[in-house]
Design goal:
The protein has a domain of 93 residues. It contains 2 helices and 7 strands. The N and C termini lie far apart (83 Å).
Length: 138
């Protein structure tokens, strides 16, 4: 039987098969890494730290706005309690393990920040003349 017509015969055929196998392995590894990274990014401590960082950045940004401003955080934060005190935002997970995440911010000398919110779905940051408050949205 003549096997010259087969594509996977000989050294060239072996090379093609090896290349296809390597590509499949690389694709499988990429998919597994993406699935793992996605689940890690959605994990509770990471989300909690991200929310604390977002709130600290919101407070920093509000200092630059003139007049009175009310900003709503765009996600549901009902799993957490928040405390804003001198120079930091503290996010507490009140469900299950009591995990605490902090993020710092800086304010000019004539500004003051404060407020606390416990397990509310909607969270707002309000800026009046020289004060910034964390509160549940109306």
């Amino acid at each position: 039987m003549n096997k010259k017509g087969l594509i996977f015969n000989g050294k060239k055929g072996y090379s093609i098969l090896l290349t296809i196998f390597e590509l499949l392995v690389v694709i499988a590894i990429i998919v597994m890494v993406n699935v793992k990274a996605s689940s890690y990014a959605k994990s509770d401590p990471i989300a909690q730290k991200t929310i604390a960082n977002d709130l600290a950045l919101m407070i920093d940004a509000l200092v630059g706005f003139p007049g009175n401003v009310l900003v709503e955080y765009p996600k549901d934060v009902s799993k957490y309690s928040f405390l804003v005190s001198s120079g930091k935002v503290v996010a507490l997970n009140t469900e299950g393990a009591n995990v605490r995440k902090e993020s710092k911010f800086t304010l000019p000398d004539n500004y003051d920040a404060g407020g606390d919110v416990e397990r509310k779905a909607r969270l707002c940051v309000r800026k009046t003349t020289n004060k910034i408050f964390l509160e549940a949205c109306p």
